[in-house]
Amino acid sequence: MKMSETVMLIDASFLNFVIADVKKNFERMLKRELQLIDVSRLITYLALDADVSEGKNDVQVLFIYDDESAKLEHCQPASLVDELNNVAFSNELGEFSFYSFQPEKIATLQELYLESLKLIAESKEVKKLIILSFNEEYETKVVSALKGVEEMGIIQFRMNEPDKDLAFRWEMLAYPLMQALGIRGDELQ
Fold first, then answer.
1. Smallest Cα–Cα separation from 98: which of 128, 53, 68, 58?
2. 162 phi and psi angles, rounded to 5 deg
3. What is the pTM of this model?
4. pLDDT at position 183
5. Residue 57 pairs with which residues in a beta bridge?
6. pLDDT at 62
7. What confidence score (pLDDT) does residue 186 get?
8. At what angle do helices 135-145 and 109-122 cross, to 10 degrees?
9. Phi-psi category of residue 150: left, alpha or beta, with phi > 0 → left and psi -120 to 50 → alpha
10. Is 138 helix (H, G, I), strand (E, B) or coil?
11. Residue 152: CB partners within 8 Å, gap ≥ 6?
12. Which residue from 156, 153, 152 is spatially nearest to 171, judged by alpha carbons?
């Protein structure tokens, strides 16, 4: 697969875990049901927070999933097999192409994610790498895989501030998620 200049690598099990948690907590706090997440909007919000500017950008969005995470929770479209694989959408930022990969029986989701991360990090085409990895499960392996990668801008979206300094930039995942769920700033005051 030829890589784009900007690639998002998303662990679907992590995204599902975070969406379910954020949705449950904010529905309880706001005392209202939150909307389904439009995946194109969420991806756009992530891209904006990662400083993808308006233009003719070509962004590849790669989902790594297993049987338990083949469907994105509280999202529309949701199926990584039927609806979010080998499709694309365009907006003012450019074109976003979606591809979904499931590990074979000999590998786990984590192993496929980390192997994909290493391959992308070694790619000469990629200038910006945006990652959503399951830090609670394999953060040290992600940090190790990205050690010494300096030719590209790396932005990791996470739910918690890192315990120690990272060699790459990180952003809070809660903000684009809250936007995608339809949570308004004035509701949080």
1. 58
2. -65, 150
3. 0.96
4. 93
5. 94
6. 98
7. 85
8. 30
9. alpha
10. helix
11. 121, 126, 127, 128, 129
12. 156
In this structure, how many other beta carbons lie within 10 angstroms of the beta carbon of residue 1? Answer: 9
β-pairing, 94-101 vs 87-91, is antiparallel
User: In 10 A of CB 82, how many CB atoms?
Assistant: 12
- Please state whether the peptide bond connecting residue 162 to the residue before it is cis, i.e. omega within 30 degrees of 0: no
CA 60 vs CA 21, 107, 141, 144, 183: distances in Å: 26, 23, 23, 23, 27
Residue with tokens 């379910």: 20
| 135 residue type, one letter | N
> Exposed, middle or buried by CB within 10 Å (0-12, 13-18, 19+), for 173?
buried
In the chain, the amino acid numbered 124 is K
Residue 17 CA to residue 185 CA, distance in Å, equals 23
Tokens read off for 23: 């949705």
> What is the model's pLDDT at position 151?
81
- Which residues of the chain fall short of a pLDDT of 70? none
pLDDT of residue 159: 95
Separation in Å, CA 133 to CA 14, 107, 142, 184: 7, 17, 8, 26
